Request: fold
Amino acid sequence: MKILYINSLYAPDIRGGAEISLKLLVEGMQSRGIEVRVLSMVPDGDLSVSTVDGVSVYRAGLHNRYWPYSPKHQPNYQRLLWHVKDRDNRDMARNVHEVIKREKPDIVSCHNLAGWSIAVWDVIRQHNIPIVQVLHDLYLLCPNSNMFKNDIPCKGICMECKVLRLHHGKKSSQVDAVVGISQSILDKFTAEGYFPNATSYVIHNTRSIASPGLPKTRVAGSPLRIGYLGTLSKIKGVEWLIETVKNLSFPTQLSIAGKGKTAYEEHLTALSLDHDYINFIGYVKPSELFEQIDVLVVPSLWEEPLGMVAIEALAHHVPVIANKAGGLKETVKEGINGLFCAAERPKSLAEALQKLYENTGYYNQLSAQARNSVASILDRDRMLDAYQEVITSTLEKHLLETP
Reply:
């Protein structure tokens, strides 16, 4: 059996959780004796192939107006033109055709398709190869991948997205199996009529995280050490967190790990002036941050597809306070490993923090239960078994339906 994996990026070019999870999946499948190949993008150049940690990886130069992962800000008209071409990018589809001709995979597993576009589905179908689509974000519904506009989460598909995604739902009928990394993200697509002919699955991503030792304990009256880890952007709710901590009536320390666009970082720094208990620490290893904090806050204003950062914190015995939205509802459990707040009720974040500060026994209970609450998600074989079942079942179904 040979599987071709298609994603926008691949290691060592890792920009987010999708790339980390895909690398674990690809290498895990190869370790089980399955042939794997990866097709990803680079800013420019002809189709090339190299080996990354024993895996054959093809990379194709992007044919569009600019490289979307550059820190350079593009004017609105350029972004619109980029998205117009990205509706159905036939220039990129030719690379998929070439790799399929060379490798002759039995099945293709598509992941993030930004830059590739849904043109890849047509090419794969032309070769009569079954398709598995894995949903890591909302790209197939929203060009920005997050359904967040004018600093607020979208209640539905806006007119611009409807135009730029006009044929995506219909084209999705070519997909044989669809995997959501959470039930929440899968439901988003099925509610819009996507993947009508596909068998649906939910498979949570995983991380390999060794036990960090004993759970954390708090002593009454000690400052509550709060942490944030992730991109510094409006959509992540960092401003909500900073303003909340500034107005708390008990001693705290806030460590903010991550980077963002320079202008926004400067804006956040200005919000925190004269508050020496708020520290921006830039890029750090997650384990280093988790050693320094009592609680992780995930105040995302959009519906996180899964919220892997919450899982990583819980694996380190760190309770989580999260905005009750998206995939976070499937990993954070109220009263078991953390607490929920609600973006529509901003004071709820302060209330949750105060509860952990005042009730050390409650905090210690959450910490003691945190890692065990995500033990099944941390099981790499669980994820590999589930994906192998998807691949096997999809291939069997395809063979039965092929004349």
Notes: The mean pLDDT is 96. The chain has two domains: 2-206+379-401, 224-373. Residues 2-206+379-401 form a domain with the Rossmann fold fold (CATH 3.40.50.2000).
